[in-house]
Amino acid sequence: MCCVTVIQSQDGWGVNYDQTDVCAAKGSIVFITCDYTYPPGIDPSDIMDRFWFTKEKDGEPVDLKTDSEYSDRVRHTCYSDWKRCYLTITDVRESDSAEYKFRFRTNKPGEKYTGSPGVTLSVTDSGLQVQVRRLNSTWLELTCHSSCVLSDRAEYYWYKNEEIIKTGSSLLVSSGSTDRYSCYLRGSWDQRSPAVYGPQRPSVSVSPSAEMLEGGSVTLTCSADANPAASYTWYKEDGTSDPRLLSEEPQLVFSSIQSSDSGRYSCTAENQLGRKTSDFISIDVKYGPQRPSVSVSPSAEMLEGDSVTLTCSTDANPAASYTWYKEEGTSDP
Q1: What's this model's pTM, rounded to 2 decimal places?
Q2: Which of 229, 215, 238, 241 is nearest to 271 (CA)?
Q3: Residue 212 forms beta bridges with which residues?
């Protein structure tokens, strides 16, 4: 279906609206279009007035261009050769919600026609939104949702990235797709919904980015571009096939980081449309030497002339340097 045409006609007189409903957000631009027809015996030069209206005064329609509520916000364009007219309303307001009708008349008394019913414009605070519903592990259903109350003949168009691919209020897409999907309602050309898409590959930042000392505070932050917003999960590589789950928050906070926290970390970003995992980031916690231990080799009885090795060792990051002393019976070794 390429369009929704509403035909109001009688004895060769007629008005064909391209849509029955238009939904728009406050402050946007709205386009309403129609074709008009008249009996074959009438010459195009006989058409005197063509205008749009929502109100009547003393039984006669009031041209929108003369309505103070629409001052400087409406533009009416007609093409006689095509018998086609356009109404443009800029900076739409909630008070603009109404039924818009087109009227034309000739220079002969009584020859006039109004297309009724007309086109219903609904103006709301919010525009179109794409709702996502998972059908199974493979497929998702996207639904174009409007805050306006629309007839069942309202027509939606779907974009995949920047290309129109389908009409209808819903769309099936595969799970894990990296494409961006959005929709719009016919007649509201600048009212495309925000695009929905799965997460891009997450990035990880570390604060502070300087040297990490044991006992200090360190925060890892995972972020990814996604709509709907992604949820996050943190993992630590433990040398096994499956990393260990640590947290399900965007930030992984170490209020007093320890040497045991050194290692490789990654995060995932996930929404209804897909899931992505970051590259690993390495955390290297610096700490001073523990009390050194001294070992002797060989540990058996030492005889004069034998080879003996004393070894000093301690746990430290970075690695410690060592100094040996011998007590000489004085106050200072």
Answers
A1: 0.62
A2: 229
A3: 285
User: In the block, which residue shows the tokens 């525009």?
Assistant: 127
Residue of 206, 142, 155, 223 lying closest to 184 (CA atoms): 155
pLDDT digits (tens, 9 = 90+) for 76-115: 999 988 899 999 999 889 899 999 999 999 988 888 899 9
